[in-house]
Amino acid sequence: MAKGKEERRRFLRVDDVTEISYSPIEEEPLREAKTLDLGGGGIRLISKEEIPPGTTLSLRFDLPSDPPSSISCSGRVAWIEEVTEEGETKYQQGITFIDIDEASRQKIIRYTFTKHYQLKKTEEVAIEVNQIKKSYGNLQAVKGVSLKIKVGEIFALLGPNGAGKTTLTRILSTLLYPTSGSAKVLGFDIIKDKREIRRLIGYMPQNYILYDDLTARENLEFFGKAYGLRGKTLWERVDEALAFTELERRGNDLFRTFSGGMKQRLSLACALLHRPKILFLDEPTAGVDLKLRKSFWDYFHQLSQTGVTVFITTHQMDEVEYCYRVAFMNLGEIIIDDTPKNIKSLGRTKLILTINDKRESFEVKDYSRDSAKILRDLGERSRQITSIEFEESSLEDILREKIRGEELRD
Description:
This protein has 410 residues and is of the alpha/beta class. The chain folds into three domains: 3-117, Thrombin, subunit H (Beta Barrel); 125-342, P-loop containing nucleotide triphosphate hydrolases (Rossmann fold); 343-409, no CATH class. Helices cover 30% and strands 34% of the residues. The chain contains eleven helices and 19 strands. It is globular and about 85 Å long. The protein starts with a helix and ends with a helix.
């Protein structure tokens, strides 16, 4: 491939997923910024009219959202070529941004990626698990687990190390046979239909499986070819995955030079290359800082909006709030499976009053009703209250109590 062509493929097409209005401007932008582009090049715009290279444009991107939003910036035509689209000769321009803030650039990238990714919903249930068990000799790692996960859900499997989370994930990813029980992934049996399932899922293991002596781009191309991607499709998928995970400027750097967080992002990019319908992510945010964790959850929510089902294992309790559904696993068993809101409602709320420098605690279920009753019952003593506090059970407290209850039943 000639160098010019190789450079041009780094320009991502965006006009097929969003409305772009543009007009030439005579003067340079007042706010000249360092060129910021998509996928190492820029954007591709196909139009009926020819726009000469070097022309500075005023650009406006209309991104459908609630409420609707738009992004305005400036760009410059870097190259032009004739293309045939639906039997009609048109002009394809490569445009680099010269005046855009980073947040807006990322918004365009992520919107474009998710629109290109958009899945057609053909099933209601993504994963169905029926009494799955897995034993290693006398050790039962998974003890009769049953689950049903809807298409497009972000489902978190929580639990301490050794709870059986990774074992169950590997079974559902067809990397491990169960001892007994059955499961279907998008309607396919995990034992009989392994090949079909592997085409439809992406798996991001807890430990890196990428190659230190390859660049980020070379790693992605290697795994893309393993998924059967070739030529233009492979190149475009690699560029989009790098842009989506904010690694486009490090595409030609060796994997071994990456920080832990960057390695995690590249692992996610690899899992997304073939546009899977289900993502299995084993501890994807382990060892990354709070800012990067927030970015990862932004990625997951954007993917969920396209119809991708996200199955995550984690031991970090604070991540529950980001999920649609949560199951907690302990010693190979699911002990609770519900929405974060419903799980939190199982906790206790305490009203703590300081009366005459002494703290008194009262359990309440309804803040307004129960608190008012407690204050009425205190009578004259309520005049001596100097402070009022509410204390809610943490998710960890709720789960610890649930585990204790299960142990007592056993």
